[in-house]
Specification:
45% of the residues lie in helices and 13% in strands. The protein is α+β, with helices and mostly antiparallel strands. It folds into two domains: 2-57, no CATH class; 66-258, Orthogonal Bundle (Transferase(Phosphotransferase), domain 1). The strands form three sheets. It has a five-stranded antiparallel beta sheet, with helices on one face. Helix 3 packs antiparallel against helix 4 and helix 6 (196-216) packs across helix 7. The termini are far apart.
Length: 260
């Protein structure tokens, strides 16, 4: 049994059993679509259990702990951007029949089914390169920039220099260089470059609202997060995103220019 931040799963040999959630059916549809599209950066659906749990393939590799972000260099971060772009390109023609736990229940023009939680803890690395994204339970419909904004927040990372997130870093992160590497790998369109810094703040605010709402509804994992001070941490990181807006903007534009 492996305890995640929200969902616990069981590994049995080369398979993972994830418990049924409101997103299980749409998640299975998405992963099957990715397999049919030739995308190799996600687990495969093996089957399902009578209670709705989904069996997936186990993906070997290194998944960084939350405080191990310092181990990811520019090449690794650029590979995250490339893998995310590849995933998003596969989503352009995908509209699942099943719905989602939250957010829009249909894919509107300009939106896709986002992973929802692109972060080191949900990325499998092999030989220094991003090989796959895992933990697809949080998929939802949003602009593709939502996923990239979430990735910038988590991989840069966007927080104060005294945030507990950085307590095991050997030195303060070069956020600009890390953001530039991600954007360079993603090959961001010119029209999206101006929107991305605002999206980072929007993502953090949206996550904070979601935690607060689910904690108020008595969802155990989110009630625990509230007790542990997660809402205060997210409020602090939102302020950091707003304060770092000029740095994020400059780094995004640098990543765009590096694409040639």
């Amino acid at each position: 049994m492996v305890a995640g931040r929200v969902t616990e799963f069981v590994r049995i040999g080369d398979e993972v059993v994830r418990p049924a959630t409101a997103n299980s059916e749409s998640m299975s549809e998405l992963l099957e679509h990715l397999e049919a599209s030739g995308f190799e950066g996600a687990p495969r659906v093996v089957g399902s259990e009578p209670d709705g749990a989904v069996r997936l393939t186990w993906i070997e590799g290194w998944v960084p702990e939350e405080v191990e972000g310092w181990k990811l260099d520019a090449d690794a971060l650029e590979s995250v951007g490339r893998l995310l772009r590849e995933y998003h390109d596969c989503m352009r023609d995908f509209a699942p029949k099943a719905g989602f736990e939250e957010g829009p229940q249909a894919v509107a023009k300009g939106h896709i089914v986002c992973h929802g939680d692109i972060a080191p803890r949900n990325t499998v690395f092999r030989e220094g390169q991003a090989a796959a994204f895992i933990d697809w339970d949080g998929i939802w419909v949003a602009p593709a920039l939502w996923d990239l904004g979430h990735a910038l927040w988590q991989f840069a990372p966007i927080c104060d220099d005294d945030d507990p997130w950085l307590q095991q870093w050997l030195a303060l992160p070069d956020r600009a260089a890390r953001i530039t590497a991600l954007v360079r790998g993603y090959r961001l369109a010119p029209s999206e470059a101006q929107q991305l810094p605002e999206m980072v703040a929007e993502v953090i605010a949206g996550c904070r609202h979601s935690v607060a709402r689910k904690a108020a509804a008595g969802v155990p994992a989110f009630a625990r997060m509230q007790r542990e001070g997660t809402l205060d941490v997210l409020a602090s990181q939102l302020q950091a995103a707003q304060r770092l807006h000029p740095l994020i903007q400059e780094a995004v534009l640098a990543g765009r220019s590096d694409q040639g």
